[in-house]
Write a structure and sequence with these properties.
Length: 370
């Protein structure tokens, strides 16, 4: 509401009228109006604006009356440019926002490397070791990419790497962005979409998971055949970017069947046992209760975790081929009678990670050239 509006409504409500007049005299109405104008601004400029506001309120004229914050309008703080936005955590990101953000990300990567990846690989908790096998790697910390925050999940390094794995050009995400860290889904899925934009046709998602199938002990590797999204979130909320993917994407074969076959073939060739099943994604970060574990088992899920499903939805939407493996780090809550711990998850990842790495290396080597 502007100062003029306050004055005109004030004749109907005397109490408010007086307050409005007092406010106007002291400049508060103008300040309020100005704050409103600033609401759309990035947090950085809003913070600076507040600091100045506090300083100006403290300023008094010779009679002790507070000096108005906006004497002339000439002192408007600058409108925020993209560099003033702290990270993409600050607001929801709709599909329609993604093309511009991805353009900026591609430009930032291309300043450092011209490598065109054949595949993009997301390394889950405890699986980051595969990144050490990359040759001629360019590593970019998340925080150096526009709009991305530093990774905060324990066990996640938080870097995008581009290099060659056994001679095959790939992009790797060492660590990922999780919704439970407070990141909006439209940020969580940017790494996978960026890999696609950089040239990868195939994305491989790995994760640490709890076993819902009672036969899955710690160390079981499960090819993801399908998923159940119980995060309550979707990266596709809001106006669509029709140039990137359809409004209502089909999810029948989200986990590309020929790639699943190929993963199994690689497992056989490497002498690594691979189970197959349905991954259920929850928001986290609390582990499930035993009752929830029983319920999810009843729904037909075989493993449960706190990642992957949003990335899978976005990859499918954008037309990428998708493969995935869950590393079961522990039986689901309640099965063993022991409490779950993140240390146990990381330890199981360290033990089984090298087996999974062998399967993925072969899978990548055998990817057809595009
Ligand atoms: N539940 C959810 N996420 C997990 C688990 C689990 O038991 N283990 C590893 N990530």
């Amino acid at each position: 509401m502007s100062a003029t509006e306050i004055t005109s409504t004030s004749t109907e409500v005397p109490g408010e009228a007086n307050a409005a007049r007092r406010a106007q005299r002291s400049g508060i109405a103008e300040r309020r109006d100005h704050i409103k104008v600033q609401r759309g601004a990035g947090a950085g400029s809003f913070g600076r604006f507040h600091a100045r506001l506090r300083a100006d309120i403290a300023r008094r004229d010779a009679t002790g009356t507070p000096v108005s914050v906006l004497p002339s309008g000439a002192e408007e703080p600058p409108l925020p440019g993209p560099m003033m936005m702290p990270t993409d955590d600050a607001r929801p990101i709709h599909p329609v926002d993604l093309p511009e953000r991805l353009d900026a990300l591609v430009a930032a990567v291309r300043e450092r490397t011209s490598l065109v990846p054949r595949a993009g690989i997301v390394l889950g908790s405890g699986l980051g070791g595969l990144a050490d096998d990359l040759d001629d790697a360019t590593a970019i910390p998340f925080a150096e990419l526009p709009g991305w925050p530093a990774a905060s999940a324990p066990g996640h390094a938080g870097r995008l790497l581009l290099g060659t794995l056994d001679g095959v050009p790939v992009a790797m995400l060492q660590g990922r962005l999780h919704a439970y860290e407070g990141h909006p889904p439209g940020l969580v899925v940017q790494p996978v979409l960026l890999m696609g934009r950089l040239g990868a046709r195939t994305v491989v998602l790995t994760n640490a998971a709890g076993g819902l199938d009672p036969s899955f002990g710690a160390g079981t590797l499960m090819v993801i055949a399908d998923h159940i999204n119980m995060t309550g979130l979707t990266p596709l909320l809001g106006p669509n970017a029709d140039g990137m993917g359809p409004r209502f994407p089909d999810q029948t074969d989200t986990w590309t069947p020929p790639l699943r076959e190929r993963l199994h073939a690689c497992g056989r060739a490497e002498g690594v046992d691979l189970a197959e099943g349905v991954y259920l994604g929850l928001l986290g970060p609390a582990y499930e209760t035993p009752a929830e574990v029983r319920m999810m088992r009843g729904w037909g899920a075989d493993a449960v975790g706190m990642s992957t499903v949003l990335e899978a939805i976005a990859a499918r939407w954008a037309g990428l081929d998708l493969a995935g493996v869950s590393l079961v780090t522990n039986p689901g809550a309640g099965y063993s009678g022991e409490p779950l711990s993140h240390a146990e998850v990381l330890a199981a990842g360290r033990e089984a990670g090298p087996r999974l790495a062998r399967v993925i290396r072969r899978f990548v080597r055998e990817l057809p050239t595009q």
